[in-house]
Design brief:
Mean pLDDT: 95
Strand content: 5-15%
Oligomer: single chain
Distance between the termini: 34 Å
Radius of gyration: 18 Å
CATH class of the largest domain: Mainly Alpha
Length: 222
């Protein structure tokens, strides 16, 4: 046993990518056991590894953790990315949940029927530029510090920067009016651990395309 966390998921972003980002930013090496066929998922279910019969699942410190937020909370606490006290943690949670709200829309976009896609993209653009990015820009502006909470890197910064990359993939112009967010993205991207993760050949997953969707459909039978 290597002692590295082991990530169980299919070979795509989905709900595991934010976990990959957080581990990478914390400088934690991890292994992936990719679920490539329905039988792989069935085996995890049948041997009792999946409490709620679903992935992501991460083996870490002798536990088999499921539920994305629970996994992220554990990693953030273990690697000191969760603030110095209960108030900072509340802010980090609040910002992380905001990131998750917009991120969920973007994650689900590739699954959207073609006839509805344009409307969904329009809605995402509107919420990105009128609701979510202004909120985060204002947080940074309000205290003038380098990071969202306590002038120290936290899981909220990492989740937000991951989201900013997805927003850029959708439309690079969406970040144009948010200089503090662009600066945060550059700052976090240049941290040695994150810089390494952003290099080609890392365990970071590419954008979800039709091929990945078909792979996921076969594994998860949806």
């Amino acid at each position: 046993m290597s002692g590295k966390p082991i990530l169980h998921y299919f070979n795509g972003r989905g709900r595991m990518e934010c976990i990959r980002w957080l581990l990478a930013a914390a400088g934690v090496e991890f292994e992936e056991k990719l679920i490539e066929k329905p039988e792989d998922l069935d085996k995890l279910k049948n041997d009792g590894s999946l409490l709620f019969q679903q992935v992501p699942m991460v083996e870490i410190d002798g536990m088999k953790l499921v539920q994305t937020r629970a996994i992220l909370n554990y990693i953030a606490t273990k690697y000191n990315l969760y603030g110095k006290d209960i108030k900072e943690r509340a802010l980090i949670d609040m910002y992380s949940e905001g990131v998750a709200d917009l991120g969920e829309m973007i994650i689900l976009l590739p699954l959207c029927p073609a006839a509805e896609k344009d409307a969904k993209v329009t809605l995402i653009r509107e919420k990105t530029t009128n609701r979510f990015l202004p909120a985060f820009e204002n947080v940074l502006k309000s205290h003038g510090q380098d990071y969202l909470v306590g002038n120290k890197l936290s899981r909220a910064d990492i989740h937000l920067v991951e989201l900013l990359y997805y927003v850029e993939e959708l439309d690079p112009s969406l970040l144009a009016n948010f200089p503090l967010l662009k600066a945060l993205k550059a700052r976090v991207s240049n941290l040695p651990t994150v810089k390494k993760f952003l290099q080609p050949g890392s365990q970071r997953k590419p954008p979800t395309d039709e091929k990945k969707i078909e792979e996921a459909r076969k594994v998860f039978k949806f």
